[in-house]
Amino acid sequence: MELDEVEIKDSFLEEQFFAISDFEVPWFADIANFLAANIIPKGLTHQQKKRFFNDVKNYFWDDPFLFCRCADQVIRRCVTRSETSKILEHCYSGPTGGHYSGTKTAHKILESGFYWPSLFKDPNRYVTSCDKFQRTGNISKRDEMPQNYTLSCEIFDIWGINFMGPFPNSYGNKYILVAIDYMSKWVEAQALPTNDARVVVRFLKRLFSRFGTPRAIISDRGTHFCNTQFEKTLKKYGAHHRIATLYHPQTN
Q: Which Pfam family, any one of them, does this sequence belong to (predicted)?
């Protein structure tokens, strides 16, 4: 029986079958080898071994990742040097980045759950190389939005009260007592013959029965509001009396 002569092919179908690529040795290789296979690094001195076993207590291996328990007792995943550039780019100039300083960027990386030894140095170097950040400069007071105090209250919680008049006599009435709710701008008004404390107390009792007891009543320094009868009525219903500042149009 004669065998057919077959030409021997010296080349593989996959040209890179045995190609050797540049493989990065991660900074935590010795720690991962010890935790995964109990392999102690060779060539360490007594002090280096002591420090190695002290540091390795903060790490644990969960195949295929190594995790570190940081100083704030939060567990974060250890990443290689090749991964840090993408993480820095995302936390600094990504959709949720904001082009903050190096310290702020480092905190965002920690909040994302990543860790490597030079975590606080690399963001500072990355920020200094950012052209957009260098052109922005420091934010001054001129760039801040104005912060104005906002009155926080519920409807019918704070009423402003004041007299209008005197007007020409109309059916025996010369004054109008006006109360306005600061939240809803609801207005209550009543025509009165006088502007003494007695009619004010009667008006407030009718106001409380309709809208409930407010937290505060704001008025000016008129004697019809600053008197014993008025204060006793407010104390009875648990409301506070606030006096407006002179010549302050916002509370008029």
A: Integrase_H2C2
Q: At a CB cut-off of 8 Å and minimum separation 6, what does 245 contact?
A: 251
- CA-closest candidate to residue 197, choices 230, 164, 239, 219: 230
Enter the pTM of the model. 0.44
Q: 197 and 126 share a domain?
A: no
- Indicate the helix (H) or strand (E) that contains 163: strand 158-164
Is the CA virtual torsion 189, 195, 199, 204 positive or negative?
positive
Residues 241, 163 within the same domain: yes
Reported as a single tens digit per residue, the pLDDT across 17-66 is 444 445 678 888 889 889 888 888 888 888 998 999 998 999 988 888 89
Amino acid at residue number 210: R
Range of the structural domain that residue 184 is part of: 158-251
Helix (H, G, I), strand (E, B) or coil at 39: coil
Q: Do 247 and 163 belong to one domain?
A: yes
Any domain includes 151: no
- pLDDT tens track for 154-181: 888 989 999 998 899 998 999 999 999 9
Query: What sign does the dihedral 84-85-90-92 (CA atoms) show?
Result: positive
- Domain annotation covers residue 187: yes
